[in-house]
Amino acid sequence: MPQSEASQKARVLIEALPYFRQFRTQTMVIKIGGSIMDDEAMLRLLVKDVLLMHWTGIKPVLVHGGGKHITQLMARLDMKAEFVEGLRVTDKETMDVTQMVLSGLINKDIVSMIQREGGRAVGVSGRDGNLIRAKKMVKPGVDIGQVGEITAIDTGLLETLDGSGFIPVVSPIGGDGDGVSLNINADTAATEIAVALKAEKLIFITDGNGVLSDLRDPDSVISRIRPEDAPALEAKGLVSKGMIPKIRSSIEALSRGIRSVHIIGGKIPNALLLELFTEAGIGTQFIP
Amino acid sequence: MPQSEASQKARVLIEALPYFRQFRTQTMVIKIGGSIMDDEAMLRLLVKDVLLMHWTGIKPVLVHGGGKHITQLMARLDMKAEFVEGLRVTDKETMDVTQMVLSGLINKDIVSMIQREGGRAVGVSGRDGNLIRAKKMVKPGVDIGQVGEITAIDTGLLETLDGSGFIPVVSPIGGDGDGVSLNINADTAATEIAVALKAEKLIFITDGNGVLSDLRDPDSVISRIRPEDAPALEAKGLVSKGMIPKIRSSIEALSRGIRSVHIIGGKIPNALLLELFTEAGIGTQFIP
Amino acid sequence: MPQSEASQKARVLIEALPYFRQFRTQTMVIKIGGSIMDDEAMLRLLVKDVLLMHWTGIKPVLVHGGGKHITQLMARLDMKAEFVEGLRVTDKETMDVTQMVLSGLINKDIVSMIQREGGRAVGVSGRDGNLIRAKKMVKPGVDIGQVGEITAIDTGLLETLDGSGFIPVVSPIGGDGDGVSLNINADTAATEIAVALKAEKLIFITDGNGVLSDLRDPDSVISRIRPEDAPALEAKGLVSKGMIPKIRSSIEALSRGIRSVHIIGGKIPNALLLELFTEAGIGTQFIP
Amino acid sequence: MPQSEASQKARVLIEALPYFRQFRTQTMVIKIGGSIMDDEAMLRLLVKDVLLMHWTGIKPVLVHGGGKHITQLMARLDMKAEFVEGLRVTDKETMDVTQMVLSGLINKDIVSMIQREGGRAVGVSGRDGNLIRAKKMVKPGVDIGQVGEITAIDTGLLETLDGSGFIPVVSPIGGDGDGVSLNINADTAATEIAVALKAEKLIFITDGNGVLSDLRDPDSVISRIRPEDAPALEAKGLVSKGMIPKIRSSIEALSRGIRSVHIIGGKIPNALLLELFTEAGIGTQFIP
Amino acid sequence: MPQSEASQKARVLIEALPYFRQFRTQTMVIKIGGSIMDDEAMLRLLVKDVLLMHWTGIKPVLVHGGGKHITQLMARLDMKAEFVEGLRVTDKETMDVTQMVLSGLINKDIVSMIQREGGRAVGVSGRDGNLIRAKKMVKPGVDIGQVGEITAIDTGLLETLDGSGFIPVVSPIGGDGDGVSLNINADTAATEIAVALKAEKLIFITDGNGVLSDLRDPDSVISRIRPEDAPALEAKGLVSKGMIPKIRSSIEALSRGIRSVHIIGGKIPNALLLELFTEAGIGTQFIP
Amino acid sequence: MPQSEASQKARVLIEALPYFRQFRTQTMVIKIGGSIMDDEAMLRLLVKDVLLMHWTGIKPVLVHGGGKHITQLMARLDMKAEFVEGLRVTDKETMDVTQMVLSGLINKDIVSMIQREGGRAVGVSGRDGNLIRAKKMVKPGVDIGQVGEITAIDTGLLETLDGSGFIPVVSPIGGDGDGVSLNINADTAATEIAVALKAEKLIFITDGNGVLSDLRDPDSVISRIRPEDAPALEAKGLVSKGMIPKIRSSIEALSRGIRSVHIIGGKIPNALLLELFTEAGIGTQFIP
């Protein structure tokens, strides 16, 4: 390695120093979503970012989704996926498929990847240790089945795992206390867990790169959004329709004690590190 | 409640006193197998037994199988189950089904049942926390796929969970350290975990009632077997063919430090309590 | 043991499960009084009940009396027992006899019985570790000698013993801080210790079976009494005269934070277990 | 206070400095015997010495006798004291008297004195916490009743009390594990407890001033005796007959790990401090 | 040693008993000033006093000055010492000399003396562990250079050292957070450290013997001064001019939570012990 | 920041991941020497490297020299520096200067720099906490004064500081136990401290860049030297004369348990990070 290249490396590490110092011992909840879960190479990069966080003293908690894989298995089983207002209608059989895919496959694949890269991880669902307590969501005029809204988070299990050096990986299944599993929106699960853990950061890894100021330009990411900026953004039609609920829930998370919420693009290599350890970041950060 | 009945109840509790005292703080590994997993009422009874153990200070660890459910899902997916020497030939797709059924469904159903009865449980697979490290089993002349034999048990996760009052429930999936999942025989997993934990007891819950002295009489259970009794039993043809490997592995477990191994019938209500808390027991106990 | 009998045993244990769970880690103060202390067989049964409590995680503290034995030794020493309003007039010599009998004999016999049955116990008097601080009781017009009323309880010693797995057995002798011993009513000592320890239950073991609704019928035990019931009971003359102070002090104990007070009959085998681990109980329970 | 007197005081404290440093955290077992127990003023002085030890970080454990008081109570009860080879023949009734006097009175009086002077003490007998396990002593041709020889010391209770800042005071009663109390020689009890606790010092407080070189001169105390000196002392008839067993057992204690054994006179004010905190000491010290 | 002398020694120790008990676990900050630092024999005596405190459970913290030595080294370096209102004008070079003398020499000599007498000590300056944070003192019309006033005390380092059995010795140098050292008045440093540590006592060791009632009589020490006495003392001209600020700051320290402030004479052998462990004391004690 | 630059930064961090993981919790002793101590900018860079180590979980211990500054102060004081075999002849006055410069100035400047960059540091000399025990070095025929060779290292203080998150900075002054300070070679002090702490790495920061294969080419640094390579290097005259003792002592350190010894150039920015966190390193590493 030429001297100059080496020096540059050292400089990068030194630039990260204030971040290492600041983030040390902070809890950060990371929602992994989108196509990153289909791309082993991208997932591996993400996991490396998570491990760098872990080894510099940050306490990461991962929450994952997996809707696409659920739909795929349902198709193979000749089951029809049905949605009401974006919520998957979840009969008993669909619930089984959901649990099998999320807790049996995706969850363990993330765990396995972390361990291949040298970490120690434990995959749990929200039913384990009563982590996510939920109740059946009621929609007027339609029964959407075993879809749940969260009523309580018991952080005991996450704290136990973290205290022993394990990185927790959570699949968003809740329990109603009577043995019924409930399908929970992964973004919501991540948010509620972050609030319950009094996490410093809540980070959504998505297929997009963040909130855009120009919907046609994927590079027009808005770096920082404060709660007071949101109405204007929505009013100007500057944000995509799908992004509106994400913006609203991010702002709500801030009001519930999370210090900052991030939306970053999973397709960008090392997105997590870039967002955390560089001044500019690469996605959208919501701050109070 | 008439006085006499009440007194009798008290007497039963008092008779259990020496067992409470003796078992307190002991680790016991319980392999749950057979049709008990299809019968919610029976499973509930078993779980109550486990909780009684837990609340009197015993540290139970559960390991479960689930071959029948795997075969069922494979059938629904038009996959053909194939066996070599009793081992399921496990290609990548079969492995996925195995993991989904074991870690995604059965494991969480047991966890859920424990929590409905008031306990706190956490379901993990052998991949979590590097619990079960395995390597691909090699059979001469035939590739049986992702079937593993255990190379190491890391008890860290189990001790972490137990130390925080969670009952661990383990699905028998191993990892090879390179991200490949391996299908592990549940009996073997339970035995290796018991040995690694230096458990006092290893208990197999099966469809039969124990080792029989007369194959035609299901009540002819042999209460106690010592290592030196085994050859005669085998020689006399007194034990069923399927039972021979179980007897051998039980005796081997004794030689590796387990104080006693039990084979009991899951169909008998409260089989676990009867075996542990009564003098005669109801199944077969192997002691050194 | 026939199958049916065994099953019944298991069923009893399982029925006790919610109690095991509920009582776990609770402190219960048990006043042992009456003729049970003259009957080794009955005492042994009681001690077994206490040990079952101990081994299922309850923290029992025993307080005992012993008036009859004091009177007996005084008679042998040609001393005359004299009482004023039910209080033993206690000169220096009577105090010595009281201490010798309570702390030297009865206390150690209970300790010894617990240890014979497999527990670990430590007998202390209220003078040890400044457990019971008291002052001389003043009666107008008469000097009743070294009879004390409690001014403070120091729970440090009891917590130390309990924290190391010892069952404390307390003889009701107080100290005035200047080296003078004081004779304390055992019921009062038990109550004050229970309040100071924030005990969940305070249990009086007596010769009677509880509060009766018909004084002529020893089986007419009133199962539950709430504070508001007491005046009517007293007014109707339904309770024996001797029981009135016990009822009043039980109700007062409730108002000072004890969750329930029990009066049960020491002559009933396993009275303690029956009261604690069966729905109906066998004595009288005071609840707020 | 004149300046010179004050300075002298300071000098004394400073001279004690190396002892404070050396003895800090050491365990010392002190056998209190002889007439000191009849003399409240002397006992108070002794207790102050013990508290000074305690507050400078030494861990004292007291063991007391009380033969004279036992004989007195027996006389009052018209019981006849009988001795065989210096051992009190102990029938059931004598055992009761022994326990009442030792554990009920003398033990608590010492506890009380410690607490009056500002310490915290707990009086226990050897039956508490299975502290002294013993078996019936067998003498050929004569039944001496409940006289015991020690078979085991369980130091758990003493360590629990010491760990919480209580000074333990032990009465020398043993238990045989079946509920039978046994009368134990107090010197032996102190020695065995010292050995079990790996105490640095074992100190006997007696009516004499130590081992004398001239039996007629009470001031002719031999300051230091090494094991090799003992035969000559005995041979020359220089030591009193009663002292010979004490010398022998002191030397045996050294061989079992006690660093030094002291015999000092209880009638000398502050004997304990003088022996511990002055170069010359005032009694006899046995060192290896 | 004659018996009578020995007894007297023991009596002195016993008289110290209530002090040992009272002071145990208390923190005491001791400012060492004046000519004691030039007199190795006197310093050794003082250190022995400190060690006696330490070994009886007191937690001493030493703060030292050293102005005379600074002036001496400056003279050797042909530097001129200049003072404004009693404050040394401290240019960069003077600051270097100050640090070298205080932290490099005097501090380590005190540490070394403690260790020679058997203790364990660690010498630190106020810059270590951010112990003393200060800002440049501003005097109108004149630049006195690197003279600081304390803005914050971080007790973390002192607690760490004390928790591991080290006696901290502090040289009064502060830091401004930007790498600039500041010269701090040692009396002020001791006071602020005492307040931050919530010390029970703050003790100034000076060349005088305390506050005098007659300036011409060095033995006319006023034993106790309460805040309300101060104005009269000052008004009557009874105290030396140099003593006035010391009286005022002592009284202020009381108002900030220190239980008592002492001014004692370093030339009196064992002054510290005499002040602490005798009723009359030998210096002046300020109490609220 | 352009995307590509950001990505490169992330890549550097990720490349450091295995090092973060590997070095976590390791102790590394760093000897700071040479002209770096005269160059605040370089020292700041070095301190940043040390803090990065600290915040990624490494436990650094710094040891510094300072000969040049000693000589400078001696010159100002008209003292003559004299050397025998490279050892400074150290009379009492020279020792004072040595201590003042090392412990009073240089040590505190390093501490201060660490704290300005956000860390917490504590500067100690080898006399504090008996860290470096030494004896006077004896040279035949010449008295070199207070020059010491190390006889023992007490790591207690370093462990105390590290356990509370302070970075220790050590000046190489030893004590002989009788209050005499001894001048210790800083390289030797670093080596002995590393051995006593069972450090993984011992790192010398020097003015040169490492061991050169061509004395005329400062870039001809030999990356790795194994013990068996050393004789050839010396024989070929490939290494400078001054480097020979450094090579020998490095190899000796390996034989005493240090896993690797590094000699790196202090003038290279971020030399420490480059050596630790890049494959090639930039100095010379000695490995067994």
CATH topology of chain A: Carbamate kinase
Multimer state:
homohexamer
| Count of discrete alpha- or pi-helical segments spanning 4 or more residues of chain A | 9
Give me the strand/helix succession of chain A: HEHEHEEHEEEHEEEHEEHHEHE
Largest sheet report of chain A: 8 strands, mixed
Average pLDDT of chain A works out at: 91
Structural class of chain A: alpha/beta
Account of the 3D structure:
The structure is a homohexamer of 288-residue chains. By secondary structure, chain A is an alpha/beta fold. Chain A has one domain: 3-Layer(aba) Sandwich (Carbamate kinase). Helix content of chain A is 41%, strand content 21%. Chain A has nine helices and 14 strands. Chain A has helices spanning 3-23, 40-55, 67-76, 92-116, 156-163, 186-196, 230-235, 243-255, 271-277; strands spanning 27-32, 59-64, 83-84, 87-88, 121-125, 132-136, 148-153, 167-171, 173-175, 181-183, 201-206, 224-225, 260-265, 284-286. In chain A, the strands form four sheets. In chain A, strands 5-8-2-1-11-13-14-12 form an eight-stranded mixed sheet, sandwiched between helices. A two-stranded antiparallel ribbon of chain A has the order 3-4. The first copy, chain A, has a two-stranded antiparallel sheet with strand order 6-7. In chain A, helix 2 (40-55) links the parallel strand 1 (27-32) and strand 2. In chain A, helix 3 (67-76) packs across helix 4 and helix 6 (186-196) runs parallel beside helix 8. The longest helix of chain A has 25 residues, at 92-116. The radius of gyration of chain A is 19 Å and the shape is globular. The interface between B and C is large, with 38 and 38 residues.
